[in-house]
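Q: Hi! New to this. If I give you a protein sequence and the SMILES for magnesium ion, can you show me the bound structure?
A: Yes, paste them in.
Q: Okay, here:
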Amino acid sequence: MAIVSSIKHESESPKKQRRERLVNANLLTEEVPLTKDDSLRPRTFDDFIGQLDLKEILGISVKAALARGEALDHLLFYGPPGLGKTTMSMIIAEELGVKCRVTSAPALERPRDIVGLLVNLQPRELIFIDEIHRLNRIAEELLYPAMEDRRLDLTIGKGSTAKIRSISLPPFTMVGATTKPASISSPMRDRFGITQRLEFYNAKDLQTIVQRTADLIGVSITLEASYQIGCRCRGTPRIANRLLRRVRDFATVQGNMTTIDEKIVDEALALHRVDHKGLDASDRRFLKSLIDLHNGGPVGLEPLAAALGEDPATLESVVEPFLLQIGFLQRTPRGRVVTHAAKKHLQV
Ligand SMILES: Nc1ncnc2c1ncn2[C@@H]1O[C@H](COP(=O)(O)OP(=O)(O)OP(=O)(O)O)[C@@H](O)[C@H]1O
Ligand SMILES: [Mg+2]
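A: Thanks. Here is the predicted structure of the protein with magnesium ion bound:
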């Protein structure tokens, strides 16, 4: 296919490619106006597509909490970026009919940040803490009694005259979200009554998500075309929505805005060098380098990163997870190995 033959021309600097990656699942600042992203967020369980097991489990817990008039148990969401952790947290607040106070761990550096978060808390409200693995120790130690005993322990004064004053809190639900569950301290992890992983979505569910977004932004698209986007977005709704916007841009400029079909998707994504598996130029450079310079592996991450002029940590967190997920790459005790499926895809 056209994309594969374009590999030879993929010679931009790694930095430039990283900056421009369309298939990066992280929220890009260019996509804030958050209102734009927010307007696409499903607001109810019914609106939230896929993740059926998760919806069933959470639906039962929410119904039970409502029936008993109690706060929902503390809840931890983990999984790769862009799969709906924040969205599901907002839905739960909506379904419980309570407010959600939204913050993230880096904004909770000082005790007064935690106090600000917890004062005036109304019964059964949600507190959503994003990137919860980044909480510092002071923040964690203030949150432990708050989560467990609904008590905020404040130290007043300093040194030998310091006193602890306890303030009682109403029942509330803490919702933590993270892409790095292994980095959460274990006492913090143990305080969540419900822990749920968000999974990558299948192409069918992503097709439905693309159709829904197209409706919301007023774009007409065929079912085949939204399925194509669903196949190329790395199992990730955020990327699906982003690809749809880029395809819409392409169609607008081509003056071909009646209905987006497979041909338009193909042409638009060829321009962005996103192939039919969702691989972009960075992924292909990575695999090609493993094949051409290291005979397909096994090879350690460091020499690979050196050959590509990339930072090893970036390769590990940004490029590798998707390649591992689709079985194009294996991590063995002796190093990274390219699979037969990857070679077949790249036609080498
Ligand atoms: N199940 C879904 N159905 C429809 N749209 C979804 C679904 N899940 C996510 N989305 C869309 O994808 C976007 C990204 O989701 P969200 O911000 O909740 O991801 P996240 O897991 O919190 O990501 P991060 O780890 O970067 O914070 C949302 O704005 C929403 O439009
Ligand atoms: Mg989020």
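A: The CA atoms of residues 126 and 173 lie 5 Å apart. Let me know if you'd like me to explain how to read the tokens.
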